[in-house]
Amino acid sequence: MAQSHGADVILGVGGGSSMDSAKAIAVEATHEGTSWDYLWNSDTQPTPKTLPTIAVSTTSGTGSQVTQVAVVTNTRNRDKSAIYNSNVYPKAAIVDPELMVTVPEHITASTGFDTFCHAFESLLNPSASPYTDMMAEKAIRLVQKYLPTAVKNGLDMEARTAMAWADTLAGLCIANAGVTLPHGIGMAIPGMYPHIMHGEALALNYPAFTRFTYPYAIKQFALLGRLFDSNLEDQGDETAAEKACEELDSFLKEIGMWFGLADFNIPENELDDLAKQSLVLPDNDANPRVATLEEATQLLQECFRR
After folding, report:
1. Rg of the chain's alpha carbons, rounded to an integer?
2. At residue 36, does pLDDT exceed 90?
3. Which of 176, 45, 47, 189 is nearest to 122 (CA)?
4. Which residues contact 209 (CB under 8 A, 6 or more apart)?
5. Through-space distance between the first and last CA atoms of the chain, rounded to whole angstroms
6. Alpha-helical regions (H) of 51-129
7. Gap between the Cα atoms of 153 and 285, Å rounded
8. Is residue 40 scored above 90 in pLDDT?
């Protein structure tokens, strides 16, 4: 349609799927083949011929309005991957919290937890910098304070505005640093089971991920623990880091995101295949503790029931 219309610009209005679709269309309309030929690990990459996109976010979660990422799913192959190239950055972004007040409670929670994950995982990523750390800490503070309110009362403009800002900050974090193991798993799950939202997939694996990783990132997990519970300021780093896992569990329960793989009817006999798919993207290699296939399988087994 974009080609036949002779489109000059692609407008993406919505959540991450809408904005990422706009970016993929902008590539496919101006290049040979399909958007699948231009994934992050392809020999061919989007060129400056890519049509400009304008991103208008209506959820607070993906940060796609400020990233060079376009996530794409191939349901036939049960695969979810991404275009990752500077030529797909939106040329302009409009972030208006008034567009978010009608987002349902569960989608608010799911996208909001994605915001948290972007911020926290950028702290863990080896490409982190003082610039991304500053934005990540601010985003985590905002999510911890305002996401429960936004979930309970979507009309609260203070909470919606804070979450929109947190989402944008966290998007800038992953555009300049990156994510880690939970996003590898969080891409594989909805790739194989498209009825599961990205934020849900992250919530599914985070309790196991935090306990797997925190001993290898004491500083970052201690910071997280203290951001969620100021009483941990008086505790040592190792104690605060360990407590961060419990604090995050409580937060997931508070926003209604506490569930296991079995709750989404994922077949237990497919966990081995899911583990293999979880390690395809480079996110695992950026984790403070790099998971083996056996460890990834064990993580998913721990995620199966809550």
Report:
1. 19
2. no
3. 176
4. 181, 182, 185, 299
5. 45
6. 105-124
7. 39
8. no
Q: Which residue has the tokens 């009483």?
A: 231
Section 195-207 average pLDDT: 96
What residue spans define the domains of the chain?
2-95, 103-303
Gap between the Cα atoms of 166 and 31, Å rounded: 34
Flag whether pLDDT at 222 surpasses 90: yes
State both tokens at 216.
Answer: 């290898």
Q: What is the DSSP letter of 215?
A: G
Q: What span, in angstroms and rounded, lies between the C-alpha atoms of 202 and 210? A: 12
Phi, psi of 80, rounded to the nearest 5 degrees: -125, 125
pLDDT grade for 77, boundaries at 50, 70 and 90: confident
Distance CA 203, CA 223 (A): 20
Q: Which position has the token pair 């790739």? A: 191
> pLDDT tens digit string along 276-301?
999 999 999 999 999 999 999 999 99
Pick the CATH number of 103-303 from 3.40.47.10, 3.40.50.150, 1.20.1090.10, 3.40.50.300: 1.20.1090.10
Q: Which letter, b or e, does each residue of 26-54 get, where b requires 16 or more Cβ atoms within 10 Å of its Cβ?
A: bbbbbbeeebebbbeeeeebbeeebbebb
**pLDDT above 90 (res 266):** yes
Query: Could you give the CA distance from residue 238 to residue 218 in angstroms, rounded to a whole number?
Result: 6
Please give the CATH topology (third level) of the domain spanning 2-95: Rossmann fold (3.40.50)
Q: Residue 12: which of 66, 48, 49 has the closest Cα?
A: 66
| The predicted structure's pLDDT at residue 169 | 98
What is the spatial distance between Cα 276 and Cα 284, in angstroms, rounded to a whole number? 12
Cβ-contact 111, 64 below 8 angstroms: no
